[in-house]
Amino acid sequence: MSEEKQTVLSGKDQWLVLTRLLTYTAPFKKQIGFAFFLLILMTIGDVVGPILIKVFIDDFLTLRSFPYEPLMGLAAAYIVIQVGNVFITYFQLMKFQEIALKIIQQLRVDVFSRVQSLGMRYFDKTPAGSIVSRVTNDTEAIKEMFVSVLAGFIQSAFLLVGIFSAMFILNVRLALICLLILPIIFFIMKAYRTYSAVFYQDLRERLSELNAKLAESLSGMGMVQAFRQEQRMQSEFGETNEKHYNAGMRNIKIDGLLLRPAIDMVYILALMMVLSFFGITSFDAAGGVEIGVLYAFINYLDRFFEPINQVMQRLSIFQQAIVAASRVFKLLDEKELAPSQSESCSHTIEKGEIEFRNVTFSYDGKQNVLKNISFRARPGETVALVGHTGSGKSSIINLLMRFYEFEQGEILIDGKSIKYYQKNVLREKMGLVLQDPFLFYGTISSNIRLYDDKLTDQELREAAEFVQAHTFIEKLPDQYEQRVVERGSTFSSGQRQLIAFARTIAANPKILILDEATANIDTETEEAIQVALERMRKGRTTIAIAHRLSTIQDAEQILVLHHGEVVESGTHQELLAKRGLYHKMYLLQNGLSHDQELV
């Protein structure tokens, strides 16, 4: 699924994004103030240097007068200023870098925290690679703006003001001539911002698509190789990569045209104007421009255009950062949040009774996947959900776990709406075991404990023994401290499921939710686990999705779903006696015909 195409940012939008970014500097006002102070000192040093050289040329070199003490004082002052500028520049750059890194650190925490609070609907429509790109690549682009652009822009602004001030002090007419170039520079900058905003928007989106393709390929590498899809994936990745290349080339072309080359042309024009004015006024009987003044002006022009060139180069980084920031802020402003809970209520789950009352639900807001679902699971009972693929079994669990918000009806736990329980209460009292268990990078111990310091090593071991996971764990080289790689790929599916069972039991939930928990387990392991499941269900309300009907024959209630509706309900024997959909499913799974007698 491709990411939604973003609109091109207008000048107003860019300003709003920049203003919002600057709010992250608020906690660092003192550090920024000190960095600006160093910046001012550095600017003064850059401006005063050429003036000292001008004094040397006009007052000593031209007159061929070289008194020892004044010259030594002038030389000492120049050396002190230059050496001082080296140290000031170092500390100023270090300070801005430190501030930028802290800002990005906080921004990344905000983005990651926001991702954790988003609802499942958002992840259904957004590729994982796109989200990763925003947290990593986009925030990195923003860091470059704080490091290079803002500090550089401010430094350049201070330097330009200082340079023009010195120019007017030295020669007003020459300074006015140099002012004529400013409108040309502003026009070039405006043109660059207008066109580059479009190109950088496209570039960031292509980079996001690259990340999405890469994440999809890596997560499904087993399927890619099993079905010989390597060539297709390479082709699709190559096509996306080509689009990214073309977008990058468009950026390079506009950079090559409107950045350094255009500014160099303006510099040559300004230099010609200054030298022409010097040449013309040199024939003036009233006296032309002094050699030292001319040197200072040419030096200032070099110093003037260097920050201009830097600003133009940094405009490229600025445009990338603004586009990246707009993508990050779009994620921060995402409204598709996880279902909200009333955190002010102090209800606790004591019995574990579950009731669905006329619940209707749709993922896309158009087609209902659950229609008027009603049932009750009494404390300690097991309610099994069966039905063909797409009948709505997983949707019921998704609503019960509060992964999605439902539109109509009510879900009650112990007679109270599920919306009026604090989220941590629901999560603590509900144990979920999926068909494909997820293991975190770490150790077996950390995966069972899930970093709950209250759970002792003895309780952890008892939980593993309860689900019969202890047998295989103690045979491992490091036992409970055995390393678990990403998604637990070094363990068999049965071992991963046993660890997931131990994790659930260790939390001691009141409500147990099983999504075909024995589907990926071999027959020998399943027999052992069925015993554990019976022990787990005792005293707990259990909602179990079952594809194999043999695993839920002892359930107190079986709900048969078809196209989002409960079409049959009852015990195993009752449903067989009805000779309806459940009866047909049972015959199919057991290889029996309608004419054969069910024993």
UniProtKB/TrEMBL annotation:
PROSITE patterns recorded: ABC_TM1F (PS50929), ABC_TRANSPORTER_1 (PS00211), ABC_TRANSPORTER_2 (PS50893)
All residue ranges annotated as the ABC transporter domain in the record: 354-588
Topology class, membrane: Multi-pass membrane protein
Localization in the cell: Cell membrane
Major localization class: membrane
Any GO MF annotation of the entry: ATP binding
Keywords: ATP-binding, Membrane, Nucleotide-binding, Transmembrane, Transmembrane helix, Transport
UniProt keyword annotation of DNA damage present: no
Name of this protein: Multidrug ABC transporter ATP-binding protein
Organism field: Jeotgalibacillus soli
